[in-house]
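Field log, afternoon session.

UNIT: design team B
ACTIVITY: writing a sequence onto a fixed backbone
BACKBONE:
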């Protein structure tokens, strides 16, 4: 059974925490922001290359060829986004100028908390 047309099995949240550590993130609730430049400094691409077998167990073989070969910072962000979507999390990207250079800054945010807040904001008023 495939999941999101990308994965062959659904990982547990505990098995994803080591993958998040490759991005210098403590867990799903880590509010730390990062850029592609930060990923290069931290060596995330090399760490993903070293732990590629963990990701190959999750991805379908045809998708692993696409996403796990020729890794760079852009693909590593894509991989993180895909994994986070399994757990109703996503990356929020905002453009920022840091020391005169335009960069995209990423933060993890929870999708279901946003949905819960929106559902509380809605109300129905009926007039008799």
């Amino acid at each position: 059974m495939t999941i999101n047309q990308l994965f062959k099995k659904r990982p547990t949240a505990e098995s994803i925490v080591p993958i998040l550590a490759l991005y210098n993130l403590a867990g799903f609730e880590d509010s730390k922001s990062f850029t592609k430049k930060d990923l290069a400094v931290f060596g995330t691409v090399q760490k993903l290359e070293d732990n590629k077998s963990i990701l190959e167990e999750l991805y379908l073989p045809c998708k692993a060829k696409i996403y796990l070969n020729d890794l760079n910072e852009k693909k590593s962000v894509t991989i993180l986004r895909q994994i986070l979507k399994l757990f109703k999390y996503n990356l929020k990207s905002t453009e920022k100028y840091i020391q005169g250079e335009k960069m995209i800054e990423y933060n993890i945010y929870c999708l279901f908390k946003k949905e819960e807040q929106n559902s509380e904001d809605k109300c129905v008023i009926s007039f008799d």
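LOG NOTE: The longest strand covers residues 89-98.
NEXT ACTIVITY: expression trials, pending approval
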